[in-house]
């Protein structure tokens, strides 16, 4: 099975369309959406409709902190810019879409794989995996050999060796990485809808469950259109401009 792992979509229609088209071209057979389907971007209804359709066809989907904020009133834990988008998004989506979000899980386990949005030790708390210490804590919090995680908008890969040492490196796109069964792995694909590593191309990853090969991808998309739609919607212009630079 070839799984596409797409996370932090952030209501970016253009980025999601590009990632899905790229994944289809590579003959992906199943999809996992790791949360933050909405927030920041101007197309929450389209993105939610698309993910809902994929879920009906067997895809996995998780709730992220921006999704959960739609259910929790005014999102006081967020910064003012993110909170403004939450309020705007809540007025855009349908009751059916809000119900879909409300039923999304925090974690999904399948065979020897764990899917979470934020981390494995407390997925509902939204703590970030900012480095080796948090990655180690997350890997120790699950029996799964491989954890796929969103929330962090920069592609990263962590592993624990047989000696218990945690390693971290930044993967190169298009280069298959065999995930040895002798190690534990934590995979952060990066954000499809709002990359923050200085590269504006959308991020996602694929994992072949037969060969155990992980591949990171960067997919160029029409960021200019996504930017202009954010501005036209009356959302903070900084959210559009950052798409052009990936920051």
UniProtKB/TrEMBL annotation:
Family: Belongs to the metallophosphoesterase superfamily. YfcE family.
Gene Ontology molecular function terms on file: phosphatase activity
GO cellular component: cytoplasm
Domain Calcineurin-like phosphoesterase: 1-211
Organism the protein comes from: Undibacterium pigrum
Protein name as annotated: Calcineurin-like phosphoesterase family protein
Alphabetical list of InterPro entries matching this protein: Ap4A_hydrolase (IPR050126), Calcineurin-like_PHP_lpxH (IPR024654), Metallo-depent_PP-like (IPR029052), Pesterase_MJ0912 (IPR011152)
Domain of life of the native organism: Bacteria
Pfam families referenced in this protein's UniProt entry, alphabetically: Metallophos_2
